[in-house]
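testing teh design pipeline on a random one, pls ignore if ur not involved
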C-alpha cells in the first residue's frame, strides 16, 4: 500500500492491481462460452466512461435525475438523522456530482466532514477530490484507489467513529442477486458501530416501454456505449470486430426483473482476435449478453437487504416514484438486548 498525502487529501493506492490480462481472460472465456457473454465492468475504459456520463444526461435515462431529485429534497433530513458526526464513505464515486448534495447537507449539520471515496479509477478520485476540496474548506478527503472490497478494508483502518456508506446509481442492479447479497454482506460486516448506516440507490420496476427506452435511447448513446465493448477489444486485444455488423438490443425480462443488454450479430461472420489467437464464429442473430440491470419491486428491497444482514430503516422516493434511496442499518444493531 502507498499513501500520498497533501493538506486535506490522502490517496491510498492499494496493492491491488487489475491483472493486465484479466480483460483478455474474461473476453476469451465469455466469447467461447455458449451463450456468449462479456462482463459489464469492462464497459468503463476512458471512452466508455465518457459515454456513461453522456447517458446520465439523456432524457430517457431517468435514473440519475430521479436520484438527484431525492437527494436535493431529502439530504438535509438524512443528515439530521445522525446525532454524532459521521464519515461519508462512497462506493464507486466516479465524478461524485450527486454526492455533493449530501456532502453539503452533512457539512451544514456537523461543520466538518471526512469524505472517503473508493473508486477503481485513481484519476477520477483525484479529479473529484480536487474539485470538492476547492469548494468546501471544512472537508477532508481520504480516497482509496481500489475495488470496493479492498478499499473498504483499507478505509476501516483510516476512519474512526460512525460511518455512512453511500452506494448510488442503482449500481447494485448490475450484480446478480446472489452476488449483490454477498457483497452487501461484506459491507454489513465492515459496519461495526451502532450509528453506522448504508444509503443505497435502487431503481424500481416499472413499465416495460419506459425501461427499454432508458436503455435504448433515440440518440444512440447507449448503443455506442454497448458497442464500445467491441471497440475496446479491437483497441486492446487486436480484435477485428466491424461495429457496423453488430446491433445494440435492450430488453426487459419482467420475470427476472432485469433489463438485459445484448450485442446482436447482424450476419453470420467470423471475427479474429489476434492477441488472443482466437477466431470467434457468430451465427446471424446470435448475441453477446453484455449487461443485466436489475429493477426492484418494493417488497424485494427489505428482503434483499435482510438477506445481506441489514434492516431497512427509511425509504425516500422521487416525485414520480421511479427510484428509491434506502437507508439501512446492520441487523445486529436493530434489536439491542
Ligand atoms: C452503472 N449502471 C448502474 C448503469 C445501469 O443503469 O445499469 C449502467 C448502464 N447501462 C446502460 N445504461 C446505463
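output:
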Amino acid at each position: 500500500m502507498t499513501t500520498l498525502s497533501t493538506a486535506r487529501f490522502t490517496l491510498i493506492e492499494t496493492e491491488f492491481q487489475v491483472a493486465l490480462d484479466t480483460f483478455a481472460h474474461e473476453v476469451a472465456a465469455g466469447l467461447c462460452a455458449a451463450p456468449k457473454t462479456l462482463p459489464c465492468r469492462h464497459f468503463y475504459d476512458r471512452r466508455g466512461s465518457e459515454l456513461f456520463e453522456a447517458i446520465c444526461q439523456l432524457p430517457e435515462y431517468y435514473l440519475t435525475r430521479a436520484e438527484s431529485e431525492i437527494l436535493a429534497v431529502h439530504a438535509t433530513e438524512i443528515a439530521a438523522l445522525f446525532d454524532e458526526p459521521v464519515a461519508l464513505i462512497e462506493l464507486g464515486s466516479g465524478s461524485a456530482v450527486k454526492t455533493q448534495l449530501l456532502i453539503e447537507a452533512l457539512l451544514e449539520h456537523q461543520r466538518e466532514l471526512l469524505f472517503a471515496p473508493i473508486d477503481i479509477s485513481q484519476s477520477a478520485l483525484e479529479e473529484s477530490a480536487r474539485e470538492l476540496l476547492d469548494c468546501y474548506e471544512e472537508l477532508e478527503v481520504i480516497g482509496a484507489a481500489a475495488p470496493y472490497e479492498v478499499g473498504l478494508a483499507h478505509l476501516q483502518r483510516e476512519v474512526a467513529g460512525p460511518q455512512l456508506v453511500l452506494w448510488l446509481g442503482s449500481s447494485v442492479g448490475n450484480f446478480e442477486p446472489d452476488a449483490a447479497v454477498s457483497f452487501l454482506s461484506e459491507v454489513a460486516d465492515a459496519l461495526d458501530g451502532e450509528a453506522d448506516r448504508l444509503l443505497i440507490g435502487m431503481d424500481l420496476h416499472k413499465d416495460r416501454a419506459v425501461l427499454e427506452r432508458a436503455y435504448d435511447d433515440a440518440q444512440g448513446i447507449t448503443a455506442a456505449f454497448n458497442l464500445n465493448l467491441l471497440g475496446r477489444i479491437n483497441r486492446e486485444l487486436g480484435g477485428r470486430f466491424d461495429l457496423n455488423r453488430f446491433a445494440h438490443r435492450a430488453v426487459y425480462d419482467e420475470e427476472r426483473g432485469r433489463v438485459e443488454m445484448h450485442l446482436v450479430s447482424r450476419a453470420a461472420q467470423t471475427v479474429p482476435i489476434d492477441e488472443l489467437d482466437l477466431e470467434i464464429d457468430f451465427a446471424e442473430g446470435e448475441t453477446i449478453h453484455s449487461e443485466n440491470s436489475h429493477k426492484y419491486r418494493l417488497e424485494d428491497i427489505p428482503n434483499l437487504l435482510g438477506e445481506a444482514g441489514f434492516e431497512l430503516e427509511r425509504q425516500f422516493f422521487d416525485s414520480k416514484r421511479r427510484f428509491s434511496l434506502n437507508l439501512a442499518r446492520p441487523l445486529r444493531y436493530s434489536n439491542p438486548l
